Amino acid sequence: MKFGIIGAGMIGYFHAKAITAMTGGTLHSVFDLRQEAADKLASEYGGTAYSSIEDFLADEELEIVTVGTPSGAHLDPTLAALEAGKHAIVEKPLEVTLERIDQLMAASKKSGTTLAAVLNRRFHPGMDAFKKAADEGRFGTLASASAYIKWYRDQAYYDSAGWRGTWALDGGGALMNQSIHTVDALLYLAGPVKSVQANTALLAHERIEVEDHCVALIEFQNGARGVIEASTCTWSKDGHPARVQLSGTEGSVFLADEAFEIWDFQNEQPQDAEIQATLMKGQEAGLGANDPTAINSYQHQRNFEEVVNAIQEGREPSTSATEARKSVELITAIYKSAQNDGEKITF
């Protein structure tokens, strides 16, 4: 399929790298309001550069777009693409409010196009093994399911662009921006949430509207309890990995980015030895923990390939808008609880 990229910033380069490497897709065009930015990306990775979205979407050969604009600016270009009959893969979060997400989903349904999200932390061997164990019920009665994203961003990061740290265009702070992929991973593994209570704070940064630290207590529909802790003010030399931890009556797994700190089951299976030999944690730096550019593009590549395969097979992709909506719904509830002095929010 022929891909077009909307947004020639840092995320656009990740998309271009992934599209260039993927099976089933080629980079056809790039759109950015800044012609020079579109020209630069297109010159490095190929394709035609546009600064008019009307001209970009009028190209009949263009089949699918990726959207990498600021979070709160996903709605308009994605709507335009869907209404032009193009499939769309949108960066996290799909949009910053449930109302906007529902608007996009309605437009996708009306136009008969596929609307999917970038949920790239679902696409690595560690997550494949973790999900398989969860789906097979290897944890027994799940008691604990938690996520910890203790990352760091300096003040210069927030000062680097006027939209950073704003409700309108970031949709939130450490939780909505930096932690949404890990929140998605927690829901992907542990299932839907029953209730949440939360507290947020702005501890270490200036001139931003949103939180840089958040703690939420979660009760899942399956009875498990857990914590989500998200931060952009927890410094470390190499960066802490994002962690997802599940524990139950028959096993525990602690995932740190793409490798396991713990893989321990009461009832061992043959594949456990291979996992322990190949996927256990070393001393790797946290992916994106201190530096937002330090992420792997191969996860985007697998994400894009899954969406292309789904379109060709006539099915919903595993990173559908319905899936992407879940993490935004939980984060929205966490913010509501925090803004109401830790009120318990029930789903």
Descriptive overview:
With 347 residues, the protein is α/β, with parallel strands linked by helices. It has 2 domains: 2-117, 3-Layer(aba) Sandwich (Rossmann fold), CATH 3.40.50; 124-290 and 327-339, 2-Layer Sandwich (Dihydrodipicolinate Reductase, domain 2), CATH 3.30.360. Helix content is 38%, strand content 23%. The chain has helices at residues 10-21, 35-45, 53-58, 75-83, 98-111, 125-135, 155-159, 167-170, 174-178, 180-190, 270-278, 297-313, 321-339, and strands at 2-6, 26-31, 48-50, 64-67, 87-90, 115-117, 142-150, 193-201, 213-220, 225-231, 243-248, 251-256, 259-265, 345-346. The two termini are 39 Å apart.
Brief rundown of the structure:
By secondary structure, this protein is an alpha/beta fold. The protein contains 13 helices and 14 strands. β9 and β10 form a beta hairpin.
Topology summary:
Layout: E1 2-6, H1 10-21, E2 26-31, H2 35-45, E3 48-50, H3 53-58, E4 64-67, H4 75-83, E5 87-90, H5 98-111, E6 115-117, H6 125-135, E7 142-150, H7 155-159, H8 167-170, H9 174-178, H10 180-190, E8 193-201, E9 213-220, E10 225-231, E11 243-248, E12 251-256, E13 259-265, H11 270-278, H12 297-313, H13 321-339, E14 345-346
Parallel strand pairs: 1-2, 1-4, 2-3, 4-5, 5-6, 7-10
Antiparallel strand pairs: 7-11, 8-9, 8-14, 9-10, 11-12, 12-13
Helix pairs in contact: 1-12, 4-5, 6-10, 10-13
Question: Which outline best applies?
Answer: globular
Mean pLDDT comes to: 95
Q: How many distinct helices?
A: 13
- Which sequence of strands runs across the widest sheet? 13-12-11-7-10-9-8-14
H and E string: EHEHEHEHEHEHEHHHHEEEEEEHHHE
The CATH superfamily of the largest domain is known as Dihydrodipicolinate Reductase, domain 2
Class from secondary-structure proportions:
alpha/beta
Please state the CA-atom Rg, rounded to the nearest Å. Answer: 20 Å
Point out poorly predicted stretches: none
Total count of domains: 2
What is the level-2 CATH architecture name of the largest domain? 2-Layer Sandwich
